[in-house]
Amino acid sequence: MAFSKTEALSLFKKALDENRLGHAYLISGSSKEDVGLLSEEMASLILGCSLLNLQAHPDFHDVEPESKARKILTEQIRHLEDELHLKPQTSLYKVAVIHDADRMIPAGANAFLKTLEEPPDKTVLLLVTLLPEAILPTIRSRCLMISLHEAGKSEQCEYTSKIEILMKDKFYDGAPHDINSAFACARAFQELLAIARKEALQAVDEEFEIEKKQYGKTTDRSWESLREEHFKAVGEAKALEIRSLLLAGVTNYFAKRLRNLYEQEVPKKSLPLLRALETVDSLRHSLEQGVQESLALEAGFLELMRSCAPGYFTLDRN
């Protein structure tokens, strides 16, 4: 079963509170940033320190590919073993994060397997990978699996579906292609964009609140300010990502209709669709250049209406 990062961290915290920690976890997913951040948040919980102080914590150890071939070498694993057999210095546990665990060379993987079979006392091992199937089965079988699902996948399907409904409602054979229709389409697009952004920003705010509850008492106020800036940047990036997603939905709509025309062997009717695709691309470029969003969208959808002259669409509303 796959979890969101927030769900995975919550379940891990519950296990920690109930003294049910495993000695090894294999964290996988489709985003290197997400799996890496989850491993660091888990390590911070175990060691009772903030994320900002994690790398300097004497009981925290991490390993990542260092060679020119981007492999984790046997010498790195041996050094880690030596560190883990020492007693914790300031915490109850020692924590080791192995980034890109699938990059261990065979000899290193076999050496690490021995560590898993006879784990040092008070040690938690966190293996991080985007390719869990590339890790030795004998290693995987000795780890508790934490799989993160693709962030926003269900939301993307929902937004794509709503964009398709909007486009079918505004661009079909016999539909009015006038200024009123253009502005109505632009408003509908902006309303959908506003709703999607609000939901995304709420999710970011909730994640920040969770982090404040977990780490707020372990560090000074400067930490909160830095993390607030981080989550603000994440929110802004999400907003841009959602806008790009919705514009991609518009592009996909016209591209799908274009393919249908060629499959029906009526390419002579494709010119308006080609113009529409060029218009969407131009709109995307304008937005990326910082043109005021509402004005750019109104101008873009007006041009779309002009591009799609009546008579070229052989589509119904179904």
Short overview:
The chain is of the alpha/beta class and 318 residues long. It contains eleven helices and six strands. Strand 4, helix 5 and strand 5 form a beta-alpha-beta unit.
List the helices and strands and how they pair.
Blueprint: E1 2-3, H1 5-17, E2 24-28, H2 32-47, H3 51-54, E3 60-63, H4 74-84, E4 94-98, H5 106-117, E5 123-129, H6 137-140, E6 144-148, H7 153-170, H8 179-215, H9 221-263, H10 271-288, H11 293-307
Parallel strand pairs: 1-6, 2-5, 2-6, 3-4, 4-5
Helix pairs in contact: 1-2, 4-5, 7-8, 7-9, 8-9, 8-11, 9-10, 10-11
Description:
This protein has 2 domains: about 1-150, Rossmann fold (3-Layer(aba) Sandwich); about 155-305, no CATH class. It is about 60% helix and about 10% strand. It has 11 helices and 6 strands. Strands 1-6-2-5-4-3 form a 6-stranded parallel sheet, sandwiched between helices. Helix 1 packs parallel to helix 2 (about 30-45), helix 4 packs parallel to helix 5 and helix 7 (about 155-170) runs antiparallel to helix 8 (about 180-215).
